[in-house]
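To: structure desk
From: M.T.
Subject: fold request, one chain
Message: Could you run this one when you get a chance? Sequence is below, nothing fancy, just the single chain.
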Amino acid sequence: TLMLLLQERGRMTARDLARDLKTCDAASPGPWCVEDVNSEHLHDVCLAYDVPGAGRPVLLASVFGGQDASDPISLKSANANARFIAIAREGWPSAVRRALAAERGRAALVEACEAWDRGFADGETFDAGRFLAWVNANRRLARAALAEAKGRGG
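Reply: Done. Structure tokens follow.
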């Protein structure tokens, strides 16, 4: 199944942000933390999160890192990978929501511009007064799209 997943990922050309957000929402809540586990037989970097009332972090996953030069992933890389995953748990949902908002805002602005363009007959000359009236009518839309894209809501 890992090979199928890798093949599927290789074919993806654009992110499905709605699907990504569902994946984020389905994961264990954050914040996640990184715990180093180094013993004679185990060299893992563990991802965990604090469950309210549990009194200690609960293991979510581990990232293996080898200490030998022949290991494809060093313990240092495993630690960096685990920290990336933990930070992404907090940052990715926010980034996806902002990107979705920006896409909605862009679509609304493109539609407004296309509506403006459709309002002209072929060969019609530019009318500055008409353009300013259009800008004023769409100012609220543009401000709302910009605020949403910046993550401040409508």
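Reply (cont.): The longest helix spans residues 75-118. Let me know if you need anything else for the meeting.
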